[in-house]
Write a structure and sequence with these properties.
This protein has 395 residues and is mainly beta. It is 8% helix and 38% strand. It has two domains: 130 residues, Immunoglobulin-like (Sandwich), CATH 2.60.40; 220 residues, Distorted Sandwich (Glucose Permease (Domain IIA)), CATH 2.70.70.
Length: 395
């Protein structure tokens, strides 16, 4: 009997242990707070740009709390070592963060409100992490977000999450989509309505098809985009230029039924389904598709199912769809839909960097700046940096 009672007492004491542990002072020192739901929908890949590795991706922050939460710092960390490889705070954080659907940029990027995410709202941090070419790219990333509770308490807290493995799959290696030059590779991660920050929710999923999209505009040595009346489409230097297959591929989709305005001022607004204008999608294999958009009507020389060879002329550059001037929109995606696919990284096997525009707003009215960096003019196996002026060698 004594043994049975002793055993029973021990069992009862064991049952009390969890309660005692929960009541320790250490637990009381860390109050439980609601935090952001952190997610990285698309794993980043290391893309070679200007002699560096670029990790371009998005960190989504959803606020399910009963009060607004304001991120004050975001750190990107090497998941294996814990080393901080990027830190955003202050104005840099405000510029990176946007609220989809809440205006062009989500908030005034110069104000503190740019970092406040109201209850029930969803923020996106557009991350651009660069690493030296000689640095080892982390196998995986973690994220640390510090934030302020925007209520009477002004409490501060932090949350860790959004673990993601870096995508190690080989990037598509492509040839040039155009001949010669100079061509300006127009894109910028900071533009609120640029390719980089535009999400389309198609078929129940939000995607960024233009994550690595480039608008190619032809200029001359003085930076001019036209040789006559700037309102006439046929005066643009790039209009009618041959568009080339970037790889041996199979034609996936073609559209060639949209007319072209004779002048910029007469160009109509287009519905979402017509934004791409006349376009071609090439199936590159391995779930990758190359898109050419805003093509000249009647110029498309290929049909779905047709095999094409790298360097083959497939169409000419035009002015159709959602466009403010003749240019070639080019991007690579993970599906054959113009809007219902994720934009993915690629590299061009060779091109020469002649210079760049530090202020793309002067395009067409001022010369571009000649190259002054100590990098080689010939770039191989790289993605063109923002607003660089390049020349293609198609031999």
């Amino acid at each position: 009997m004594t043994r049975l009672l002793t055993t029973a007492r021990r069992g009862a004491f064991a049952l009390l242990l969890p309660c005692l542990v929960l009541a320790t002072p250490a637990a009381a020192e860390t109050p439980l707070r609601e935090s952001f739901d952190l997610r990285v929908p698309v794993a980043p890949a290391a893309v070679p740009v200007d002699g560096q590795h670029l990790l371009r991706y998005e960190l989504h922050l959803a606020n399910f709390a009963a009060q607004p939460l304001a991120p004050t710092r975001i750190e990107v960390r090497n998941a294996d070592s814990g080393t901080v490889i990027a830190r955003l705070e202050g104005p840099a954080l405000s510029r990176s963060l946007a609220l989809p659907g809440a205006g062009a940029s989500g908030a005034d990027p110069s104000g503190a409100d740019a970092r406040t995410i109201a209850q029930g709202m969803h923020g996106v941090a557009y991350l651009e992490v660069t690493l030296p070419a000689q640095a080892q790219v982390p196998a995986a990333l973690d994220h640390h977000v510090e934030y302020r509770v925007d209520d009477h308490s002004g409490a501060r807290a932090a949350v860790d999450g959004a673990h993601v493995r870096v995508d190690r799959r080989p990037l598509p290696v492509l040839g040039p989509p155009l001949r010669g030059g100079p061509w300006v590779a127009i894109h910028s991660p900071a533009w609120p309505r640029g390719h980089r920050r535009v999400l389309y929710a198609i078929d129940g999923r939000a995607r960024i098809l233009g994550r690595f999209a480039i608008d190619w505009v032809k200029v001359d040595a003085q930076g001019r985009t036209t040789h006559g009346d700037p309102d006439r489409v046929d005066s643009f230097l790039g209009h009618g230029a041959d568009v080339l297959a970037v790889a041996d591929a199979v034609v996936s989709t073609v559209r060639d039924d949209m007319p072209e305005s004779e002048t910029i001022s007469a160009h109509p607004r287009n519905a979402l389904a017509d934004a791409s204008g006349n376009y071609i999608a090439l199936d590159l294999g391995n779930g990758r598709y190359a898109f050419y958009e805003h093509l000249k009507p009647g110029s498309i020389r290929v049909a779905p199912g047709q095999r094409v060879r790298r360097g083959q002329v497939i169409a000419t550059l035009g002015f159709t769809g959602d466009s403010n001037g003749p240019h070639l929109h080019f991007h690579v995606a993970d599906g054959p839909s113009p809007l219902g696919a994720e934009g993915v990284a690629f590299v061009i096997d060779r091109f020469d960097v002649l210079g760049r525009y530090t202020d793309i707003g002067t395009l067409g009215t001022a010369p571009w700046q000649p190259r002054v960096d100590d990098l080689p003019q010939r770039r191989t196996m790289q993605w063109p940096a923002s607003n660089v002026v390049v020349k293609f060698d198609t031999k």
